[in-house]
Amino acid sequence: MQPLSDHDKSRIDIRVIDEPTHGSAGVNLTAKVAVTNGSAVSLATTAPDPFHLSYFWVSQDGKSIEGVRTALPRTVAPNNTDQIVMSIQSPATPGCYTLRVTAVQEHVCWFFEPPLSAFRDIQISIGERRRESLRVAPAKLFRELIRRKTTERWRRWNRRYKTPSRVHCPICLYSGDVFKVHRAEDAFGGGCLLRFECSECGGIFGTEKMISLSKRQLAREYRELYWTYDEGDTTETELQTFHKLNPTKSGIYLNYGCGKWSKAIQILREKGFNIVGYDPTAGRAKATFVISSETQLRNMKFDGLMSHNLLEHLQDPVTTLQFMKSLLNDGGLMVHATPCYRYEYEYSRFHLFFFTGNSVNVMAYRAGLIVRDTEYPNIKIFTSA
C-alpha cells in the first residue's frame, strides 16, 4: 500500500478485545485485536509500505523492547473493522511490564507517536519460566513443533537455492534473462520469497520451489499450514462471487477448491441452489456436499463454476482452467475471485501467481477463455472464447 496521509493516519484505531494478563519469560503469547479503519484507504500488508500490527514491552525503568510484526491476514476496507490474533513474544527477563499494542506502516509511522493515539497499554507481570510453564496443551505444543519443522525445512531448501540464469514464465511461456525480481518475507516460516515479473505478459510468479513441488510435497505444505493457521471467514465474498454467475435454482453449480467445508455452500443449498464443492485435499472429514475425487468430478457437468482465493495457489493455472472449462455445459460461466489480480498478499509462499499486467488475459487465451471485469476488482468472469 501507499503511504497514508496525515488525515487517514488519524482515522485508524486499535482496540484489544482479548488480552494476556500474565505470562512467563521467553514464551509466545497472543492478543485478539480489533483494527478499525475509518480512513479512505484500504489497509493491507502489501508493498511498498505495508501495514502491520506490532507492540513494545516497556519495563519499569523505561526501557523498551520492540516486538515482532503480525501481518494483516486480509485487507481492511475503509469504514470496516476486522479482528486479528496477534503473536507476541514475552521478554526474556521476568518483571512488571507495560505491553503497548499498536500498529506500524513500514517506512511511514508508528501509530502511537503523537499526534496519533492508536494504541492500548496493558500491565502484565512476567514470571520465571519454570518447568511447569512448559507444560502447554498438547495441541499448542503440536502446532509449535510443526512451525519449527516447517521453518527448518525451508531454511535448508533456501540455502541450496541458486538463482537461475534463465527464467521460464509459466503463463505466457516466455523464457529469458530479463525478469524483474520481487522479494518478500514469508509469514509462515518459508524465509525469503523470490519471485519474477515476466517482461512479456507482466505476470509475477514464484517461488520456483513451490511451483515445482510434487503433489505429495505440496499436500504436506498445506496440511502443515492448516494445522497451525485458521483462515478468516470468507462467506460473504464467496456468496458475492457465486451470484456473479447469475444462478438459477434449476442450474447445477460447482465451488472449485472450497476446502473440506464451506459455509457459503451450506447457505446456498438451504436457499434451494444446487451447488456442490470440490477439493482434492478435503479428505475423509469433508462435508457430504464436497467432492474430493477428480475421477468422480470428470463425469459431472455444471452450468456455472466459481472459485474463491484459488487461482493464485495453482501450480499450473492454465491447465487447471482448461480442466474447469471441460466441466461446463454449453453457455456455462466461470467466476474467479482473488486479490492476486494485483501484487497483494505477497508475504505468503502459497501465493504462486499474481495476475498483474496482461497476464490474466494471456492465461485465459491459452485456456480458450475470455475475461470480463466486474464492478468488483477481485472478481472476474471467464467465458468460452
Determine the fraction of residues in helical runs and give it as a percent range. Answer: 10-25%
Shape: globular
- How many alpha or pi helices? 9
- State the CATH topology of the largest domain: Rossmann fold
Oligomer: single chain
Count of spatially separate domains: 3
Strand content: 25-35%
Structure characterization notes:
Helix content is 22%, strand content 32%. Helix 2 (138-160) crosses helix 4 (215-228) and helix 5 (235-243) packs across helix 6 (263-270). It is globular and about 70 Å long. The chain has 3 domains: 6-134, Immunoglobulins (Immunoglobulin-like, Sandwich); 138-228, no CATH class; 235-384, 3-Layer(aba) Sandwich (Rossmann fold), CATH 3.40.50. The protein contains 9 helices and 23 strands. The strands form 5 sheets. Strands 2, 4, 5, 6, 8, 9 and 10 form a 7-stranded mixed sheet that branches. Strands 18-17-16-19-20-23-22 form a 7-stranded mixed sheet, with helices on both faces. A 4-stranded antiparallel sheet has the order 13-14-15-21, with no helix packed on it. The longest helix has 23 residues, at 138-160.
Keywords:
Rossmann fold; 3 domains; alpha+beta; single chain; seven-stranded mixed β-sheet; Immunoglobulin-like
Task: Give the helix/strand layout.
Blueprint: H1 6-9, E1 12-18, E2 22-24, E3 28-37, E4 51-59, E5 64-66, E6 70-71, E7 80-89, E8 95-105, E9 109-110, E10 120-127, H2 138-160, E11 167-168, E12 175-176, E13 180-185, E14 192-197, E15 204-205, H3 208-212, H4 215-228, H5 235-243, E16 252-256, H6 263-270, E17 274-278, E18 290-291, H7 294-298, E19 302-308, H8 317-326, E20 328-337, E21 353-354, H9 359-366, E22 369-373, E23 379-384
Parallel strand pairs: 2-10, 16-17, 16-19, 17-18, 19-20
Antiparallel strand pairs: 1-3, 3-7, 4-5, 4-6, 4-8, 8-9, 8-10, 11-12, 13-14, 14-15, 15-21, 20-23, 22-23
